[in-house]
Amino acid sequence: MWLVGVLFLSGGATGCRHEQYAALEEAGRTPVDGHYMLRDPDRIYHLPDDLEEISGLTWWKDNQLVCVQDEDGKLFLFDTETGKVTAEHKFGKDGDYEGVEVVGDRVYVTKSNGTLYEISAWETDDPHVRTHKTFLDDDNNVEGLGYDPAADALLLACKSKPGVKADDKVRSIYRFRRATETLEEEPWRLIHYPEVIDSLKAHNWLRTTEQQFQCRPSGVAVHPLNQKLYVLASTGKLLLVFDPQGNLEAVHPLNPRRFEQPEGICFAPNGDLYISNEGDDKGPNILLFRYEARPSADQ
Questions:
Q1: Whole-number average pLDDT of the chain
Q2: Most buried by CB count within 10 Å: which residue of 23, 45, 117, 273?
Q3: What domain count does the chain have?
Q4: Edge-first strand listing for the sheet containing 238-242
Q5: Is a pLDDT exceeding 70 seen at residue 20?
Q6: Does Nucleotide-binding show up as a keyword for this record (predicted)?
Q7: Rounded to an integer, what distance in angstroms lies between the CA atom of residue 141 and that of residue 159?
Q8: What letter would DSSP give residue 50?
C-alpha cells in the first residue's frame, strides 16, 4: 500500500511533491465507475487561443461540442472528429460565462452571478436571447451548468458560498426547472467536505491537511446511461461521482500534470466523457475518455 504525502512540508517540499505525483499516478490506475481511466485519455484535443479560457462544454450532435469561454459572449462549435473549431456564434456582450448546456433547440449559458441565458436560433446571425435572473449572485460564484433530463431541470453548481445556512465546508448544486422557469429555493445536492475527505482518506488519496482541504465545483454533468452525477472540482483537483439518489459514491483525485485547470465536463450519448482544461503552461485542451469496461490497471 502506497501513501500520499502531506502538501509541501518545510525541508522536504521537492521529495513530498514527487511522492504526491507518484501517488496521483497510482490513483489514476483506478477506473472511474469502471469505465474511465483518468491517467490515460483516449484523445487529447489542443484548442486555439480563442478558447484559452474555456469554461464549459456540452454535447450537441453528430460529434459536435458547444463550448464557451469566460470572457466573450460566443458559442464555439467544436468537431470531435477533426479536432477543429468549425463555427462561432455571438450571443451576448463580454462577460464571465461559466457553463453551457444544449437542451432541444435551445442553448443555455450561465454567468458566475447566477444569471441564465436561454438562446434560441443560436446558429443564426440573429439569435434570440432570454435572460433568467436567479437569487444566486457573485458570492455564490456559479461555475458549473448541467442538465437533469429526468426532471427537465438545469443544474447550477456553486463554487463559493453555498447559499444555505452552513459553514464553508459545504458546496451546493441548485436546480432550475424549465417548466416553471424558476430556481428551486433549496439546494438539490450538497457536497459535504468531511464526507469527501473520508472517501479520500479511505484510499490514502488525501493530498493536503483536512484544514487546508478545498473542493470547489467547476463543472457538473449527469451520465446519460446510469444517471449518476459527476462533479468536477478545479480547486481541489477532484472528480466526484454521486448515485442517482444523491449519495457520494466515489472521489477521484486528478493529477495536475494532466488536469491543469479542469473547468468543463460533459458526456456524449454513448457515455464518452469529455473534460476541458483552461490553458496556462500547456495550453487549453479537451480530454476524451471513451466509455469502455476497464479493470483496474493493477489487475
A1: 90
A2: 273
A3: 1
A4: 216-222, 229-235, 238-242, 248-253
A5: no
A6: no
A7: 5
A8: G
CA-based nearest residue to 79, from 47, 42, 41, 125 = 47
Residue 206 C-alpha cell reads as: 488525501
DSSP state of 68: E
Which of 214, 137, 213 has the alpha carbon at shortest distance from 174?
137
- Per-residue pLDDT for 96 more than 90? yes
Vertex 180, ends 174 and 184: CA angle to 5°?
25
Torsion 103-109-112-115 (CA) sign: negative
Neighbour-count burial of 262, counting CB atoms closer than 10 A to its CB (0-12 exposed, 13-18 middle, 19+ buried):
buried
Tell me the CATH number at 114: 2.120.10.30
In a domain, 95, yes or no: yes
Instruction: Give the model confidence (pLDDT) of 251-282 as tens digits.
Output: 999 999 999 999 999 999 999 999 999 987 78
Q: Is residue 76 scored above 70 in pLDDT?
A: yes
Alpha carbon of 118 to those of 103, 133, 199, 253: distances in Å? 10, 11, 37, 34
pLDDT at 259: 96
| CA dist 204 → 20, 101, 185, 265 (Å) | 11, 35, 37, 26
Contacts of 168 (CB under 8 A, 6+ apart): none
- For the chain, what is the largest distance between any 2 Cα atoms, rounded to a whole number of angstroms? 60
Q: What's the domain range around 148?
A: 28-289
> Does residue 217 lie within any of the structural domains?
yes
**d(C-alpha 188, C-alpha 142), whole Å:** 14
Contact between residue 54 and residue 45 where contact means Cβ atoms under 8 Å apart: no
- Give the position of cell 458570492: 139
Q: Are 173 and 188 spatial neighbours (Cβ–Cβ below 8 Å)? A: yes
In a domain, 149, yes or no: yes
* CB neighbourhood size of 279 (10 A): 18
DSSP string for 213-268? ---EEEEEEE-TTT--EEEEEEETTEEEEE-TTS-EEEEEE--TTT-SSEEEEEE-
Taking the whole predicted model, whether its pTM rises above 0.85 is answered as yes
